[in-house]
Amino acid sequence: MASLFLYMGMCMYAPSLALSTVTNLSTVASIAIMGVVCTFYITIGGVKAVVYTDVLQTLIMLAGTVMVTVLCCYDLGGVDKVWAIADQGQRLQFFNLDPSPFVRHTFWSTIVLGFNNMMAVVGLGQAAFQRLASVSTLSTAVRLCWVFLLGVWSLFIIFFFCGLVDYAVYSECDPLAAGLTTKADQIIPFLVMDKLGHLPGLPGLFVAAVYGGVLR
């Protein structure tokens, strides 16, 4: 229960940072609005409303993230350029087999913690249980789990590459160190406004994508 409260707090805080970056709305106000909207449509529509909005939010999240990643990658000169910059900055260490628990990211810590996290979300999470319990048969629930894992892996690949693109864009000028932004969590929203803010509708699509990832 304690971890659920912490998780929900993070889910409400993260998109509020993005919204406060692209608009004049304060973080507190955006958290309050999000809480009211989510409570309203879930209370009125029940599980059916949750399922339909999940589908819509997933599509928006995918569209916003892919759009930002593709446009910034194109401006940099393509995937090869992004990959070369990330490799030069030692951001592509896939198989670091160091067994030390004090190393930030290793192959072992990623596998173990990733497995435990997915088991907690899919096997024990309230949100996953509600969705699986709403189907009629066990076999359907099993198929849903496989579809979910395929979707999650696809999204992770897109999100990780988006992070590489952000690193490549600011590899020679860290916005946080330069004082252009005050929080590390705002670097991606800052990228959207800095490099793509001139494109009508794109900042709004990105904010919708961020909210789509947490409105459950």
TrEMBL record:
Membrane topology note: Multi-pass membrane protein
An example Gene Ontology molecular-function term: symporter activity
InterPro entries xrefs: Na/Glc_symporter_sf, Na/solute_symporter, Sodium:Solute_Symporter_SSF
GO CC terms, sorted: plasma membrane
Pfam families: SSF (PF00474)
Segment forming the signal sequence: 1-18
Record key words, sorted: Cell membrane, Ion transport, Membrane, Signal, Sodium, Sodium transport, Transmembrane, Transmembrane helix, Transport
Parts of the chain that traverse the membrane: 28-47, 59-77, 107-129, 141-161, 196-215
BP terms from Gene Ontology: sodium ion transport
Location of this chain's protein in the cell: Cell membrane
Lineage top rank: taxon: Eukaryota
Family recorded in the similarity comment: Belongs to the sodium:solute symporter (SSF) (TC 2.A.21) family.
Name of the protein described by the UniProt record: Sodium-coupled monocarboxylate transporter 1
